């Protein structure tokens, strides 16, 4: 996904307190097993310092898997987004619906959470928030399907991740076309995440 963003003609610096992958600019912020509210709490430790100008959020699957706060996932997501926009005031948020899930008894909860996420979008009319629709239930083309989900019944195979990346790219382009994307604040982080990094 980073390579696709660079091809759009802008410098990219992925930021976060963790690193994943074999490429240089592989920073991210992600916590396996975290629910929406837990991800919000974790963000409070890094967002004030890093001040990203673009957030890509894909969280809520663990609410469904653990059957915790399923009915409050949208409420928790709204609080999360509000925090990000307020704390990093040049930012845009790409909010993702959840992937289809094959774990028994989980898909109905996924669908319930996704409906809550979609219902949030009108609340952000005119604000820098866009939706990345990942679930095939909406009938959109090139969404990850059941056959794209891997052996753990939750995470996709590589082909599914590629579909996700393409969907995120399209959502970022939508945000750009709407005039949402802004340059990040000058807080000491380089605009180009590959610059000067050797490992």
UniProtKB/TrEMBL annotation:
Signal peptide: none
A Pfam family annotated for this UniProt entry: Lipase_GDSL_2
Full protein name: Putative carbohydrate esterase family 3 protein
All copies of domain SGNH hydrolase-type esterase, residue ranges: 21-163
MF terms (GO), sorted A to Z: phosphatidylcholine lysophospholipase activity
